[in-house]
Amino acid sequence: xxxxxxxxxxxxxxxxxxxxxxxxxxxxxxxxxxxxxxxxxxxxxxxxxxxxxxxxxxxxxxxxxxxxxxxxxxxxxxxxxxxxxxxxxxxxxxxxxxxxxxxxxxxxxxxxxxxxxxxxxxxxxxxxxxxxxxxxxxxxxxxxxxxxxxxxxxxxxxxxxxxxxxxxxxxxxxxxxxxxxxxxxxxxxxxxxxxxxxxxxxxxxxxxxxxxxxxxxxxxxxxxxxxxxxxxxxxxxxxxxxxxxxxxxxxxxxxxxxxxxxxxxxxxxxxxxxxxxxxxxxxxxxxxxxxxxxxxxxxxxxxxxxxxxxxxxxxxxxxxxxxxxxxxxxxxxxxxxxxxxxxxxxxxxxxxxxxxxxxxxxxxxxxxxxxxxxxxxxxxxxxxxxxxxxxxxxxxxxxxxxxxxxxxxxxxxxxxxxxxxxxxxxxxxxxxxxxxxxxxxxxx
Amino acid sequence: xxxxxxxxxxxxxxxxxxxxxxxxxxxxxxxxxxxxxxxxxxxxxxxxxxxxxxxxxxxxxxxxxxxxxxxxxxxxxxxxxxxxxxxxxxxxxxxxxxxxxxxxxxxxxxxxxxxxxxxxxxxxxxxxxxxxxxxxxxxxxxxxxxxxxxxxxxxxxxxxxxxxxxxxxxxxxxxxxxxxxxxxxxxxxxxxxxxxxxxxxxxxxxxxxxxxxxxxxxxxxxxxxxxxxxxxxxxxxxxxxxxxxxxxxxxxxxxxxxxxxxxxxxxxxxxxxxxxxxxxxxxxxxxxxxxxxxxxxxxxxxxxxxxxxxxxxxxxxxxxxxxxxxxxxxxxxxxxxxxxxxxxxxxxxxxxxxxxxxxxxxxxxxxxxxxxxxxxxxxxxxxxxxxxxxxxxxxxxxxxxxxxxxxxxxxxxxxxxxxxxxxxxxxxxxxxxxxxxxxxxxxx
Lengths: 444, 444
What we know:
The structure is a homodimer.
Chain A: E1 7-9, H1 12-15, H2 26-30, H3 38-45, E2 50-52, H4 55-61, E3 69-71, H5 73-79, E4 85-89, H6 100-112, E5 117-122, H7 126-137, E6 141-147, H8 148-153, H9 155-163, E7 167-171, H10 177-180, H11 189-203, E8 207-209, H12 216-235, E9 240-246, H13 251-265, E10 274-280, H14 285-288, E11 290-294, E12 305-309, H15 331-338, E13 343-347, H16 349-363, H17 369-383, E14 392-397, H18 405-413, H19 423-430, E15 434-435
Parallel strand pairs in A: 4-14, 5-6, 5-8, 6-7, 9-10, 9-14, 10-13
Antiparallel strand pairs in A: 1-2, 3-4, 11-12, 11-15
């Protein structure tokens, strides 16, 4: 297991204070709560820094990790980069994205907790595929609610999940009250799919609802990305002035970038690169959202979490980067953004797909449309004014785009359109949210 | 470039005699011939054993090679194997299959010869994708004729080739006389697509027709697979009693297996494993065909080559393993089969896809339907009577099946059918072929 980190690394201790606590509404307090395995609870709140990766999980990691890191010299030439661009590629595993890193950990913990069926909602299908693969690995059943439009646009995603033994339902479905009452496809369709999964999980014994991104423990599991990258860059004697990842809720960006923050805080890195979250201009929570208490799904029964959000009721336009179609950012990423430790940039999907196309031609790796946002941000960073130091850019390519090729078809056909979030709609969707203040967050 | 072979290895010297020469019909002799680069001509006929890989090609190989080899312990458990099964996986590159190994070499030689546009025909699309990627790498244009039904079944293949800059045409097309005169989809659709490519390439200056499989030089380029595998097995201190690969024309099987033959002939290997070609029961050239002179495409103008064949006019049923839908085997593989140095087994697609499904669940790698045939043959070999020695089985998984997921959809839906070649149709399709005899082959 050469090069595979023995432990995950938490950035929570660097904060020096706990994250703002969730606010539990009445409905959730009285509802049947699904038990989260103790280890995941601890990983979400403890100030412990290093978490040894359980051997069964590490053995699975060893089948596809360390993931490759290389200098993208042809992409640099293609875009006229003035500094080196290093790529950390997470698309080489069966699930096709970084999501498998946390799916395996979660499946392991849930299996040990006696759970027999993992349930989730998925947008682009990457999380659903990862969870299906992890469930198959640890002998669990798996049920996935996938956004209806996404399932139609990316039918192979459904096929792949079914091949891995999962039950796949288009959301809204007839299986849940939420789906039946939805009156058809919703504006915030991912929140609805997640809400259906929550309801379905609560309705059956032995079922657990799993979350792919925003949770603090999933960011912890993703720290293998950044930990490996730091070592790989060091071996290549390479320095980077920026670390860039795309943000749906934030697990890819967080996994790649936050170990740099932890390493710098521990005095192991001489300088801290800029940590740049590349989000979709259609869901610009980090650049145009508010730091407020909001829900993560559409059931309205979950806790309110402190996050950068454009409002869970915001009608998100359809997009090829379905994995970025989420209204909020992870609590941890949001807190760091609020403290000024994370930079953010919003990228339109046309720019993202064009960056992805040029990367595919140059590097012979087709990036997912989501990762195209990170590549576009990297291209901007590498072609802008030369920084004082000639440090490079590290960009995490979160997954492959082989099951998203219709996006590139549309790009070649010239039919890709951008719909940046409307200012008035943003204001309306966030108007009633309670902003996070020093007082509400319990911060002195 | 650790572990990457410095040279290709030819098995031709092991034969001790040249391959039966092609028979050039009148039409070909008077037609405009497309110039094959001298180096490819030499590689197809020379008795030289080692061919240094040109640095630009080797630099490209280094981006995705050595390809991984691992012991498939969970697949062994899943099928109840009595001996270890080692997997050599060629699906990890952008083209998704081993075909990139020869595509890069060919693109390099053609570019040096002044060619500006590579033209080919493709069935499953793996060869077309590989050639599109190689052409993009060496700055050449690329035009692909893809079997119409395949292009409809696997639309993402077309998308991927276009993303890589290739022009993709459904065959039969209106671009060629052959396509216009075909009266629609043909029984031997791959031979028609290849024939269209040949005609199109001849019609324009600077164009060259490229062949993905059967040519002796493409088997030479594929020798990197087996050369790496021998070294990887040796490092793992593993012995194999059988080497198995699937056979369309034979470049995957040949690439994986023939370096074992060359190594044994040179006294480097103590024992020679059985070399097992896994073909489709729908196109059983090696198990039920004849060793005769036949054409490789549907133009009827090419040379007659000595090959195991079911007849170029045989109406091949549609199949999910489109890459195996070819009527003949490579000249080199055929000659070795005729000498008894290559074993063969015919596998139905239901058995192949079920082996692929079980492999995907166990190893978290989705194999192409073509590779499913090799996996089914490996499962047969590993679960059969225990050989005297407990040697393992090496199986080459030629590519991933992420763009072939409809095949697995059909498997799960129970709608996969098998159509083994009909005896009478086989007899009819091969009745007029001139058999290869010692005399006709120029062998004393």
